[in-house]
């Protein structure tokens, strides 16, 4: 899926990232790139540090060592709100706020944003939903619809990169497929995507690049190499 543009595309660069929580090393000297226009997946079991990694990428968590660069600039030098507009994070649980889908999408906007329905409809369309959803009560949405509305809410801010934590958690195969198609389309439009998941089928369907975490360290390779190795490890664990 990736092309030769990957090597030169600006985006997110993680270099030497280390994090310890409660005195226990969680991430150790991680280094990898997330070029814009590509989908990079981090495949590892629960508790391996995937969520910690994502939170470091937009400064929700300060690492103990290493750097995170956005288009070559250290994220520590970027004002936090500005950084989180440029690098959006979609959490594992699709939290819906009270009210309609419109209310949920408008929550992510500021007074400086174009907050008209046209802007909200564009965000919905990018996430694979049509404008008729704007007036739907958020608490009546299915799990797959909630996941895509959460994605649309992140897209209202016009991010350059998108971080996703277990984007297919609790979704059926059809809903997971819709989310995957959406991410591929967004990457095709130039967005950089970093998705942490333990869903190997989803990862195989969307990934241009793949990373796994072993003892807190990053191992990078082609999606075939990384996902094949992860599948073999799971098979060995079941025997």
TrEMBL record:
The alphabetical list of record keywords is: ATP-binding, Nucleotide-binding, Translocase, Transport
Q: Name one GO molecular function term.
A: ATP binding
What SMART domains has UniProt attached to this entry?
A: AAA
Pfam family example for this protein? ABC_tran
* Descriptive protein name: ABC transporter ATP-binding protein
Matching InterPro entries, A to Z?
AAA+_ATPase (IPR003593), ABC_transporter-like_ATP-bd (IPR003439), ABC_transporter-like_CS (IPR017871), P-loop_NTPase (IPR027417)
Is Repeat there in the keyword field? Answer: no
Q: Which residues form the ABC transporter domain?
A: 12-239
Q: Which residues cross the membrane?
A: none
């Amino acid at each position: 899926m990736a092309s030769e543009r990957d090597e030169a595309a600006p985006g997110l660069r993680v270099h030497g990232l280390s994090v310890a929580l409660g005195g226990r090393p969680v991430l150790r000297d991680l280094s990898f790139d997330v070029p814009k226009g590509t989908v990079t997946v981090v495949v590892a079991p629960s508790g391996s540090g995937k969520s910690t990694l994502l939170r470091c990428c937009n400064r929700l968590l300060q690492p103990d060592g290493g750097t995170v660069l956005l288009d070559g600039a250290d994220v520590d030098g970027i004002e936090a709100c500005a950084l989180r507009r440029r690098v959006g994070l979609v959490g594992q649980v699709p939290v819906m706020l009270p009210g309609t889908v419109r209310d949920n999408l408008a929550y992510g906007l500021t007074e400086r944003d174009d907050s008209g329905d046209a802007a909200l409809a564009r965000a919905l369309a990018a996430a694979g939903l049509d404008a008729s959803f704007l007036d739907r009560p958020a608490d009546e949405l299915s799990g797959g619809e909630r996941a895509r509305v959460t994605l649309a809410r992140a897209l209202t801010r016009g991010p350059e990169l998108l971080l996703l934590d277990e984007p297919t958690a609790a979704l059926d195969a059809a809903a997971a497929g819709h989310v995957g198609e959406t991410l591929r389309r967004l990457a095709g439009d130039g967005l950089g995507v970093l998705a942490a998941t333990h869903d190997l089928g989803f990862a195989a369907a969307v990934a241009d690049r793949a990373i796994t975490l072993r003892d807190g360290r990053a191992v990078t390779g082609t999606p075939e190499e990384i996902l094949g190795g992860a599948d073999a490890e799971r098979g060995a664990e079941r025997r």
